[in-house]
Amino acid sequence: MSIRIVADTLLPGRGDPVEGGTVIMAFGEIVYAGPTADAPGHSADEEEVVEVATVMPGLWDCHAHFVGLPAADLEAMAAADIVAASARAVDDARQCINAGVTSVREVGGIGIRLAQAIDEGRVTGPNIYGAGRILSTTGGHGDIHSLPLDFVHEITCNHTFSILCDGVPEVLKAVRTNLRMNARLIKICASGGVMSEIDHPIHQQFSDEEMRAIVDEAGRAERVVAAHCHGKPGIMAAIRNGCHTIEHGSFIDEEAAAAMVAAGTMFVPTRYVIDALLSQADMLPRYAYEKGLMIAGAHEQAMKIAIAAGVKIAAGCDIFVSGQMYGSNSMEIVHLINAGMTDLEAIEAMTATAPETLGPQAPNSGQLVAGYDADVIALDTNPLNDRSVWGDADRVTHVWKAGVQQK
């Protein structure tokens, strides 16, 4: 059985919009996408015809976490019950797909397990391409510095958030541990971060030797490495050691941007989380707020430099606070536009370009093209004329995942 979507405007994900467009889906794939005038006639087994204002590919969030964390404080993870956290994550996943996010590249958390329940049809949510546990050095961004080290090892294992690993043998085992869980990519902390207490966002964490070992080991299993980086030392190390994506990239400058273009390194800026957290100063640990202020201006400039230099950019939000952020993911499109992208380029960053962040694991997704996954959404207006749709789940009128209507 097939579904025919007839739209006033068709946004293909990559390429020019089509005024008066049709998408036909059958058996989980797109059969036709293009002008209504050229669409094949109705077939005998056609199940449904849906008329919408705008049809486009389902959105991707290329940097999210399903951790069920009720507050923006990593120490809260130490006291969190995994059952309660999982219940929150289920609702967070539901909010994502209701907002038109049909795929999530989950770069650390319980998403790799949540994906199993979604795939079984027991939970409503997006396709999740999970990294499993984040690789961090001892004392690095994935550590919880105020707690005893033995306890941190125990809780990070139980909550599947991070693996503390030092030296080549330990990082190799960490990669293999994630691959054993069928991680679709590997995530590392190549620099310090904002939400961790003691480490400095500028400082490089894993050594070049450790980083190269991680990239090589992941590559043997056709997985790429996503590198959390704020400071330039970590950014340059991640580029020269073959990491596929730079996450955050707060201190990218012209030299770093040029190196990314030359190496084909992608950039996932995550401006969403910086603005979201700094607007909630009273809810953050003081150290996190101060570090957020430190990077905010540089990050804004880094996005503009990268866009101007032609770095390939995919959209991700770094959503991690349960009940507060999920469902407004598409606001990242507005941040990309504000940094210098055109509307179509920003949409492409959250659709057609996004699957490329998975390297060889990328599915045929993010475009309205025959043979691609039938992950499709409809909006109540043309977003090229009205940007207020972004970040507002209520403006998403329909969501199909693999051709099955979710909303």
What does this entry look like structurally?
There is one protein chain. The protein is an alpha/beta fold. The protein folds into 2 domains: 2-57 and 366-405, Urease, subunit C, domain 1, CATH 2.30.40; 59-361, Metal-dependent hydrolases (TIM Barrel). 33% of the residues lie in helices and 23% in strands. It has helices spanning 75-79, 82-98, 111-119, 149-158, 168-180, 208-220, 232-240, 254-263, 271-278, 286-309, 331-338, 343-349; strands at 2-10, 18-26, 29-35, 46-57, 59-69, 101-106, 127-130, 134-136, 162-164, 186-189, 225-229, 245-248, 266-268, 319-321, 376-379, 396-401, 404-405. The strands form 4 sheets. It has a 7-stranded mixed β-sheet with strand order 3-2-1-4-15-16-17, with no helix packed on it. Strands 7-6-5-14 form a 4-stranded parallel β-sheet. The chain is globular.
